[in-house]
């Protein structure tokens, strides 16, 4: 919440700075126009005064264009930050739902052992609906299988055991808990057992 307040405060400060710079530029041009009307009209002075005013006007235009470009960059950057915030805004809720999803998976596996097909089919429907709803919100289960190469950047090793076969040395022997991504960000690393 404090980040949102800081961002709003920062946005207001930048907006105030832009408005102040524009007001100052307008005031300077008005003062110069008033000063130009008060001076006597002679051909030499008028020509040099006209050149001076054109030059100052060009400077003010340049200043305004730079200020406008800076403001456009600011708007683009803040809209990009806002878009990123919207993508990950529900991360906390989805992270809280992961243990529920794990419990659901375990319950479904135990029910399959009972052999009651009608009950299993009903629970699978609810399970699939929950999975699809979470997937629609951007949650994606990471695909990790036995025999995959262990990568410390993507996997969390909870223990090492002697490899059951030589081809599993340094590889994943078992997946204890699945990992999940929200968009491109990993919100829970898969917990795996590796072979040594």
How many helices does DSSP assign?
4
Pattern of helices and strands: HHHHEEEEEE
Largest beta-sheet details? 3 strands, antiparallel
What is the domain total for the residues? 3
Weakly predicted, low-confidence segments: none
Principal-axes shape call: elongated
* Oligomeric status: single chain
Strand percentage lies at 5-15%
Mean pLDDT: 84
The structure class reads alpha+beta
Distance linking N and C termini: 46 Å
Strand order of the largest sheet: 1-4-5
Fraction in helix: 55-70%
Instruction: Tally the beta strands.
Output: 6
For the CA atoms, what is the radius of gyration? 32 Å
Word description of this protein:
Homodimer. The chain has 196 residues and is of the alpha+beta class. It is built from four helices and six strands; from the N terminus they run ααααββββββ. The protein has helices at residues 2-38, 43-88, 91-114, 117-136, and strands at 139-141, 156-161, 172-177, 180-182, 185-188, 191-195. A hairpin with a 2-residue loop joins strand 4 (180-182) and strand 5 (185-188). Helix 1 (2-38) packs antiparallel against helix 2. The two termini are 46 Å apart.
List the SSEs and their pairings.
Elements: H1 2-38, H2 43-88, H3 91-114, H4 117-136, E1 139-141, E2 156-161, E3 172-177, E4 180-182, E5 185-188, E6 191-195
Parallel strand pairs: 2-6
Antiparallel strand pairs: 1-4, 3-6, 4-5
Helix pairs in contact: 1-2, 3-4
């Amino acid at each position: 919440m404090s980040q949102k307040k800081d961002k709003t405060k920062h946005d207001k400060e930048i907006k105030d700075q832009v408005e102040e710079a524009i007001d100052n530029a307008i005031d300077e041009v008005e003062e110069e126009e008033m000063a130009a009307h008060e001076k006597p009209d002679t051909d030499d002075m008028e020509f040099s005064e006209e050149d001076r005013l054109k030059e100052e006007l060009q400077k003010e235009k340049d200043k305004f264009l730079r200020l406008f470009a800076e403001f456009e960059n600011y708007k683009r950057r803040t809209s990009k930050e806002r878009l990123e915030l919207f993508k990950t805004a529900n991360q906390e809720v989805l992270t809280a739902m992961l243990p529920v999803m794990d419990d659901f998976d375990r319950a479904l596996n135990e029910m399959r052992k009972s052999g009651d097909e009608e009950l299993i089919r009903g629970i699978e429907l609810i399970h699939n609906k929950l999975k699809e709803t979470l997937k629609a919100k951007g949650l994606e289960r990471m695909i990790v299988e036995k025999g995959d190469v262990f990568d410390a950047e993507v996997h969390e090793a909870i223990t090492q055991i002697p490899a059951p076969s030589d081809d599993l040395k340094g590889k994943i022997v078992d997946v204890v808990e699945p990992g999940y991504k929200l968009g491109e960000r990993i919100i829970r690393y898969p917990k795996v057992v590796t072979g040594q």
